[in-house]
Specification:
46% strand; four-stranded antiparallel beta sheet; Immunoglobulin-like; 294 residues; alpha+beta
Length: 294
């Protein structure tokens, strides 16, 4: 009986020790990225979305547990953006010490543009490596990746037209140099009056938008017109229409010469006051001549 009691007591002690060790291990794992071990919270993130295309990277991080509705404390992270083509790294940039604080919904959206020209139609792989800080030093946490094919992408932001010509402002949204043409079509009453074609500016998304101007063959007459601008390239078609009105032009009148009475007439009439000035000048000249002789 005594031996049985000792055996039961030993089993209880072993079970208690095992449970305590398991709890300690769990706490240590949860606090792995906790800067302050005295806090019960811990740093943890999830990738809710990642995309990369010809215009750059977009990374969506979540800093809370969706099911448990538990938010984690703010922390710092490094994000390394990598672009590869055929196994070769063509772009790499590490953005350091990004503050990841909890937003209204616990999501952080990070955008990044790689300033390297891409080749249209070529396949690329984009990656984002996340490093979380522990004791002031970044440690690797996770990697996410996505594939894409580089393409032209641009938009027409503004169109202007008048009786002399038209203009279109182009903005690129791709790191593939823009290879396209701009077609201006002038219409009135449903009929095409004139069509002009010009090459689009070779710009990328890290360039400023550019404005292209054209002149009509001749000045337009009075009326209402529509200028349709089309930006056409490989895998790219953008249209923008603008209506404008040409007002009636007034002819410039040539001012007529006036006589001394202020009435319109022959321009041979003397300028007012000029007949008085001539005798005065003659008298002054005579006085000067007389003084010199004296």
């Amino acid at each position: 009986m005594f031996k049985h009691a000792i055996t039961v007591l030993a089993l209880i002690i072993l079970t208690t020790s095992s449970t305590a060790a398991s709890i300690d291990s769990s706490i240590e794992k949860e606090n792995f990225f906790n800067e302050d071990s005295g806090m019960s919270g811990f740093s943890k993130i999830y990738v809710d979305g990642f995309g990369v295309n010809s215009n750059g990277f977009k990374l969506i991080l979540r800093t809370y547990e969706r099911h448990a509705e538990t938010s984690f404390k703010p922390f710092l992270a490094d994000i390394e953006y990598i672009l590869m083509a055929q196994g070769q790294v063509v772009y790499s940039k590490r953005v350091e010490q990004i503050p990841l604080s909890v937003g209204s919904e616990g999501n952080i959206i990070l955008n990044h543009q790689g300033n390297v020209a891409l080749e249209g139609g070529k396949n690329y792989t984009g990656m984002a490596k996340v490093y979380l800080y522990r004791e002031g030093k970044p440690e690797y946490y996770l990697t996410t990746s996505s594939n894409f094919t580089a393409r032209n992408d641009a938009e027409i932001t503004e169109v202007y037209g008048d009786g002399i010509g038209a203009s279109a402002t182009i903005k690129s949204m791709s790191m593939v140099p823009l290879d396209a043409k701009i077609i201006f079509t002038l219409k009135q009453g449903g009929k095409i009056v004139e069509t002009r074609e010009i090459a689009a500016p070779s710009i990328m998304s890290n360039d400023k938008e550019k404005t292209i101007n054209i002149l009509w063959t001749g000045n337009l007459g009075e009326g209402t017109y529509i200028v349709s601008v089309s930006l056409n390239g490989k895998d790219l078609t953008v249209n923008y229409d603008k209506i404008f009105t040409v007002d009636k032009r007034t002819s410039a009148k040539t001012p007529e010469a006036t006589n001394q009475s202020g009435k319109s007439g022959d321009s041979s009439y003397s300028t007012p006051g000029f007949t008085v000035i001539i005798p005065v000048l003659a008298i002054l000249a005579l006085v000067l001549i007389y003084k010199r002789r004296g």
